[in-house]
Design a protein that fits this description.
By secondary structure, the protein is mostly helical. The protein is built from 6 helices and no strands.
Length: about 150
């Protein structure tokens, strides 16, 4: 059987262009997620030290591209709903360092302090009184009650 070189070269070139086109689309998608993620981080964590932690490169990339560039971009919930869900989860898990960031993010998104207080009180009845007490202390550190909703 004789090999048709023109046909073979044509198929090879078509495959190369297809792979190159696919790779370019994937690069653009990753860049889009990265840009959206960076924008989201800036919006949520303005006024915090977020981004100054020395994460390993892969973990930082996953955080920006997947968590904030994909998960936080969903249309099923508003940003305020996502923020409030994140805050109550962090309260229930007693993750004080992350609460500091996400309570500020909630404030940056316009969630009233009173709503966070009500959410913490709700969580207290399911996750325990001590985690709520810790959360109220953290909330007072990053968003003093006398500052109200303005900061």
């Amino acid at each position: 059987m004789k090999l048709n070189y023109k046909f073979f070269v044509g198929c090879l070139l078509t495959a190369c262009f297809t792979v190159t086109s696919f790779a370019q689309e994937e690069i653009e998608m990753v860049n889009d997620k990265r840009e959206k993620g960076l924008e989201m981080v800036g919006k949520l964590f303005a006024g915090t030290a977020a981004g100054s932690l020395p994460f390993p490169e892969d973990f930082g990339r996953y955080t920006i591209e997947h968590l904030f560039g994909d998960v936080w971009q969903g249309e099923e919930m508003t940003l305020q709903e996502r923020s409030l869900a994140t805050c109550v989860t962090l309260v229930a898990l007693n993750r004080e360092a992350e609460q500091k960031l996400h309570f500020v993010a909630a404030r940056n998104l316009g969630i009233p302090r009173e709503k966070l207080e009500a959410a913490i009180t709700q969580v207290a009845h399911y996750a325990g009184w001590p985690v709520a007490v810790s959360a109220f202390r953290v909330l007072s550190e990053v968003w003093p009650a006398e500052n109200g909703d303005s900061e």
